[in-house]
Amino acid sequence: MQSNLVSFIQVLRTHDVRVSPAETLDAMTVATTLGYADRQLLRDGLAMTLAKTPEEEAVFLACFDRYFYQRLSDFSGQDAREDAGTQSPPEVEEHPGEPGRSDNDAAELSPLAAAGSQSPSIQALLDSPLMQSLVNNDRNELTMAIGRAAEQVNLRQIQLFTQKGQFTRKILDAMGEEQLRAAVIELERQQSPALIELQRYRDILREQVRDVVEREYLLHAEGKTKQFMDDVLSKTRLNNIEYIYLHKVHELVRKMAKKLASRHSRKRRQLKRGQLNMAKTMRKGIPNDGVMFNTYWRQIRKEKPQILAVCDVSGSVAAYAKFLLLFLYSLQDVLPKVRSFAFSSHLGEVSNYFDDYPVEKAIELVNWKYGGATDYGNSLQDFAKLALDDINSNTTVIVLGDARNNNGDPRLDIMQSVYQRARQVIWLNPESRRVWGSGDSEMLRYQSACHFSAECNNLKQLERIVDQLLKSTK
């Protein structure tokens, strides 16, 4: 059961439920203490140990019910017979084909039992544990047999929907279904009336195995498939992502931002020396009749750095700017003050859009107002008027653009001024490095006025760069 519990925790992790190694040990202690007899009690105990938010609890309960599935498989074939609208063949007698039965006795048997009395291979099938369990509808034994075969073929390793047929066949082979298939072929060759009955048992078995594989796929592969899809989307060029996947990309951006926020969140610590904070010390002593058991000290606050994000929202790079802004504003709890600017032929500050509207609506309005043909020279002049005086040694400037200026004046002197004033200037170019400087690209000239420049056209690259940025602003 401990291995089952570890496997269950792995399922939770694929469904974005965070479980640490220490919590895994706690879950094992809970399971050992509560035991496995009372399913409800075990579920509640593990939920209190492993689920830390209401959202994680909902995922936990769904995964628990699907992983520790209690219902026995139904091998009666009642539904199949009703759908077919046919009368099922009579059940086989309890001891079909016993030695010593006469031909007259065999005639009174079901067609399948009669075929067994005439064929050693059919009789061997009827005497097999699998066929006996099917004939007698021994649901306990058949469910356990499917479970053993599933474990034997490592069904929990299923990841893609295309593997469902493969695992179904592997489980059936592990259960000995090839003997049943051979008997069906033999009866077809003989045109025996027992064929219909044997085919019914075969189809019922296959249906139940397919149901087991389907449940395991939904449990184990759903999370892995989501992780695989997230990985594909994070490495795909943002302008190549189809519209139907944009909501998934938005979720992925927020997930990445949440991870970075957890990694770089500022940890508050209590100082134990310096200037005494008398007011707070006295206030905290009120519950103790004014006795100041604990002392509190004034903290020296450092000037917070600021980030200026300058985004080209012309048609060729609008998608990249959209996700950079979405990424930055998903990190508002961690990032220092962020001021955003958008430009194509002219530049303007758009920070207030994100204060007045939801982030998706704000980005849509920014693209509508500032989109158009690109003029880096004129846009840099606007930027100098709006923000050059505010740039100092605590300022990080991020420029997102392809540096294609339509053969206009690049105003490299303004970029040099920004470079000299700022703590760091980062240029993110969605184009491949191989085309920097080709045609009307001014990237190689702008690169001389940057502390760091990089190709950035997918979320994985963007996450890595923002991660480095957060490290440098601590």
Biggest sheet, strands in spatial order? Answer: 3-2-1-4-5-6
Distance between the termini: 46 Å
> Regarding CATH, which class of the largest domain?
Alpha Beta
Classification by helices and strands = alpha/beta
Mass-distribution shape: elongated
Could you describe the 3D structure shown?
It is a single chain. By secondary structure, the protein is an alpha/beta fold. It folds into 4 domains: 66 residues; 155 residues, no CATH class; 34 residues, no CATH class; 167 residues, Rossmann fold (3-Layer(aba) Sandwich). Helix content is 56%, strand content 7%. Strands 3-2-1-4-5-6 form a 6-stranded mixed sheet, sandwiched between helices. Strand 5, helix 21 and strand 6 form a beta-alpha-beta unit. Helix 2 runs antiparallel to helix 3, helix 7 crosses helix 8 and helix 16 packs antiparallel against helix 18. The chain is elongated, with a radius of gyration of 34 Å. About 6% of the residues have low confidence.
Keywords:
about 475 residues; about 55% helix; 4 domains; 22 helices; alpha/beta; six-stranded mixed β-sheet; elongated
Topology (elements, then pairings):
Layout: H1 2-14, H2 21-34, H3 39-50, H4 54-67, H5 78-84, H6 103-108, H7 111-118, H8 120-127, H9 129-135, H10 139-152, H11 164-174, H12 177-190, H13 195-234, H14 246-264, H15 278-284, E1 306-312, H16 318-329, E2 337-343, E3 347-349, H17 351-356, H18 359-370, H19 376-387, E4 395-400, H20 412-421, E5 424-429, H21 443-447, E6 452-455, H22 459-472
In short:
The chain is an alpha/beta fold and 474 residues long. It folds into four domains: 66 residues; 155 residues, no CATH class; 34 residues, no CATH class; 167 residues, von Willebrand factor, type A domain (Rossmann fold), CATH 3.40.50.
